[in-house]
Specification:
The protein folds into 3 domains: 4-116, 3-Layer(bab) Sandwich (Phage tail protein beta-alpha-beta fold), CATH 3.55.50; 136-255, TonB-dependent receptor, plug domain (Ferric Hydroxamate Uptake Protein, Chain A, domain 1, Beta Complex), CATH 2.170.130; 263-565 and 573-601 and 627-801, TonB-dependent receptor, beta-barrel domain (Maltoporin, Chain A, Beta Barrel), CATH 2.40.170.20. The longest helix has 12 residues, at 36-47. Helix content is 5%, strand content 54%. The strands form 10 sheets. The chain has a 22-stranded antiparallel beta barrel. Strands 12-17-18-16 form a 4-stranded mixed sheet. The chain is mainly beta. A hairpin with a 5-residue loop joins strand 35 and strand 36 (580-591).
């Protein structure tokens, strides 16, 4: 029987059904954005509940968010009532009654009581309309936050986007972010991300809010639930990263957890030219009230890539355990990842001076997209073992204490071959580097967060202490420039492996060469005024950075540094309407200070105070329920060192990045999901030697970049969707003098996704073609070297739930 009105007074809407479902049970719901009254009617019918409320309570109100997917009754009602000023209570017979402006409203079904609270209290912020992004993310010390409530810019990408794009690495996921671009590390195949014009090393990516845990260099996605990208300076929120990068942004990876319904899934995939893989994903909950959960992801992938002769072997085993109690939540993650790349196409250096150079200010054109200029004797092997444990305990309904700790061990090895191009025709000298590395990292964070009110002002208080300890042991052998082999960038002819001319340390048992100890304590308060329509965030973090270094050649200490510094944060959010937020922030980033070059006249091993990079940002955020957007402007000033005419090294230079970011996301039309955005950046050098390069564009920073991504359901064919992604990136300078540059480039990716049932089993087929036009292009000059874009690559996969 459908809900009906009282025929005279429109006083009550009553949904009559025989059974009231427990709040924890998930039911399939499909309620689009509409008037609140119509939405509640549809919800009551689909959820099979009894719902009562006065009709005048819903007059003139509409829902802000759609309901599409499996939700519990509690989750569904919270989503429908968001921003309405209404809550709900339940009687023992299953009848649910709406109430006005509840304080700690609870949903009671029989003897069970489920307190109304945000999705953050139970785990992850909910997905936004369209499912590709989430409406919230972990904001370091601030915890999980809704996008409209924080004075910062961020994006959070879900497992649905990861699966649809068949993303195998973190770089594949972040190709969808218009503010992020990717390059390789200087000698190997580590993924380096450029956010707001500054590098973020893979070493400095957080795992469930903790630095120093994830595999080094390349991060796979098989065990990843979400990828959260924070845009801007972030030392206050997260503390100093162990590698000292991340001035323009931070990334946090969220691991998969056991879901309420069991996961039994196997995926077979193929990537051109001959790479095949298998991924097994298993998870379930058990015990009383399904409080215990286990999730396992095992994957292997082998074969040749679309780059000629480049092949790899990849293995992953990741396990996640968790416990969800009434007040206590526990989780652990353990993982092992190993990847070997043979004949990997490496970065390219330009020899712009010297008697052999004939470049004369011209950057060589990129070789054919699939051409491989690596050497048959080159290889790289990365092996990581990692683990972490986390605990949260609700001391009261408003206060939560938390603790996370973990560590990893990395073993990196390889023989690297790099091309140093000196001729306009592609002539190059081929160098060799063998550099084994062992690295151990430990990391921990503990804190307390809670809420209270002082009169009409609300407070969200946070206290946290962080610590990261890292030790590196490495040695190397390399080839002097004069002894490098002769080759050519375009013909790819093999070059005999050059002999080692320079040796440093014991390559079979490397000694300690570096230790880093970062410790900090932070406090913050977000004050809410006018019923939280205005939110003011104030905070301080006191950071201690200690670093020691030893020469791999002489084993003597080359530097020793230990200093402390305080970084503040100021942020303001004003929400004049339910769909509009205005925000502004002033925040900083910190990096370990530089060491004076050996050739300078400074004292040997002199280290400078930490770089303090300052950011100012302001913008607007819009949330129309099914789609949203943002527009922001920012300025980041990063100090830099320079050696003067007196041969003294000082921190007197600066890179100033000013930019504008815009984005659009969500599901503006039923069945059409979009991820669109653009970034414009003016990265200006200042205070250079004798002012020679003042005003020039910084190396590796394009003036513009934009993405247009879309995924739409094909009408009349249930389960079939098509997707596309266009990436456009502006030209970049290779050197600070701006004499060498690469042109702008465009890449187009196309794909399809088809989900259906066969013998009651869910089956999903996916196909994607990246770089459809097989464009030959240099993707980046980040780091002062050239990284070539990948060739046309076909990806297909089949997933079966069993």
């Amino acid at each position: 029987m459908r809900p009906h009105r009282h025929p005279l007074a429109r006083a009550l809407l009553v949904a009559h059904f025989a059974i009231a479902l427990p709040a924890a049970w998930a039911v399939p719901l499909d309620v689009p954005v509409q008037s609140l009254e119509s939405a509640l009617t549809a919800f009551a019918e689909q959820a099979d509940i009894r719902l009562l409320y006065s009709a005048e309570m819903t007059d003139g109100l509409s829902t802000a968010l759609p309901l599409k997917g499996d939700y519990s009754v509690a989750e569904g009602l919270q989503r429908l009532l968001q921003g309405s000023g209404l809550g709900y209570q339940a009687a023992g017979d299953g009848t649910i009654t709406l109430v006005r402006n509840p304080q700690g409203a609870a949903l009671e079904l029989g003897t069970a009581t489920v307190t109304a609270r945000s999705a953050a209290a139970d785990g992850l912020p909910e997905a936004y309309a369209g499912g590709q992004v989430a409406r919230g993310a972990r904001m370091g010390i601030l915890g999980n936050q809704d996008m409209q409530d924080v004075p910062f810019s961020f994006s959070s990408y879900t497992s649905e986007l990861i699966e649809k794009r068949q993303a195998q690495t973190l770089g594949d996921v972040l190709a969808s972010d218009p503010a992020v671009r990717q390059s390789y590390g200087f000698g190997n195949f580590s993924q380096v991300f450029v956010i707001r014009g500054f590098q973020l090393y893979s070493d400095d990516i957080a795992f469930n809010g903790l630095y120093g845990i994830l595999p080094r260099q390349i991060i796979s996605t098989e065990a990843v639930e979400r990828v959260e990208v924070f845009k801007g300076a972030n030392a206050f929120l997260n503390g100093v990263a162990p590698g000292g990068s991340g001035v323009g942004g931070a990334i946090n990876v969220v691991s998969k957890r056991a879901e309420d319904t069991p996961t039994r899934r196997v995926t077979l995939d193929y990537t051109s030219d001959s790479k095949t893989g298998v991924h097994l994903d298993l998870g379930r909950r058990f015990g009383e009230d399904d409080r215990f959960g286990v999730r396992a992801n095992i994957a292997q992938r082998d074969g040749e890539s679309a780059v000629d002769g480049e092949n790899s072997h990849f293995t992953l085993a990741a396990f996640g355990l968790d416990y969800r109690g009434d007040r206590l939540r526990l989780s652990t993650d353990f993982g092992y990842q190993k990847q070997r790349v043979n004949e990997g196409r490496s970065v390219v250096y330009l020899t712009t001076s010297g008697p052999t150079s004939t470049l004369a200010g011209k950057t060589p054109e990129a070789p054919h997209a699939s051409n491989n200029y690596a050497q048959p004797w080159s290889w790289s092997e990365l092996e990581d073992t990692y683990g972490m444990a986390s605990a949260e305990y609700d001391l009261t309904d408003n206060w939560t204490a938390y603790l996370s700790a973990g560590g990893k061990y990395t073993r990196e090895n390889g023989v690297y071959a790099s091309n140093y191009v000196y001729g306009a025709n592609g002539d190059a000298r081929v160098g060799r580097l063998y550099s084994p590395l062992d690295q151990e990292t430990r990391s921990a964070v503990a804190g307390l967060r809670g809420q209270l009110s002082t009169g009409a002002v609300s407070h969200q208080l946070n206290l946290a202490i962080n610590g990261t300890w890292q030790e590196k042991r490495n040695a190397y052998e390399s080839t002097l420039a004069a002894n490098r082999g002769y080759g050519n960038l375009y013909d790819g002819a093999p070059v005999a492996e050059p002999p080692a001319n320079t040796l440093a340390g014991d390559i079979h048992d490397p000694d300690t060469t570096a230790k880093v100890r970062n410790r900090s304590a932070a406090i913050s308060d977000t004050l809410g005024f006018l019923d939280d329509r205005a939110l003011l965030t104030l905070g301080l973090r006191r950071q201690s950075i200690a670093a020691d270094a030893w020469s791999a050649v002489s084993e003597l200490r080359t530097s020793n540094y230990d200093d402390s510094i305080t970084t503040p944060v100021y942020g303001l959010v004003i929400k004049p309407t339910d769909y509009l937020s205005l925000y502004a922030n002033r925040i900083e980033s910190l990096q370990q200070g530089p060491t004076a070059p050996a050739a300078s006249s400074n004292p040997v091993g002199q280290m400078f105070a930490p770089y303090r990079s300052k950011q100012i940002e302001a913008g607007i955020k819009l949330d129309w329920g099914t789609y949203g957007g943002s527009l922001g402007v920012f300025r980041i000033e990063q100090p830099q060192g320079v050696t003067g005419t007196d041969n003294i090294y000082r921190v007197d230079a600066e890179q100033r990045n000013r930019g504008v970011e815009a984005s659009l996301f969500g599901e503006p039309l039923d069945g059409l999901r979009v991820l669109v955005g653009a970034t414009w950046t003016d990265a200006e050098l200042r205070g250079t030697l004798n002012g020679t390069n003042d005003g020039n564009q910084a190396v590796g920073v394009p003036e513009f970049q934009f993405n247009i991504g879309a995924d739409f359901d094909v009408p009349g064919v249930p389960g079939l969707s098509l997707n596309g992604l266009l990436l456009r990136t502006g030209g970049q300078f290779y050197d600070s003098a701006n004499e060498y540059s690469i042109p702008a480039w465009t890449r187009v990716d196309l794909g399809a996704h088809y989900a259906f049932k066969l013998d009651e089993r869910d089956i999903t087929l996916r196909a994607g073609l990246e770089n459809v036009a097989n464009e030959d292009y240099w993707a980046s000059t980040n780091g002062g070297y050239l990284t070539q874009g990948a060739p046309r690559t076909l990806k297909v996969s089949a997933t079966v739930d069993f």
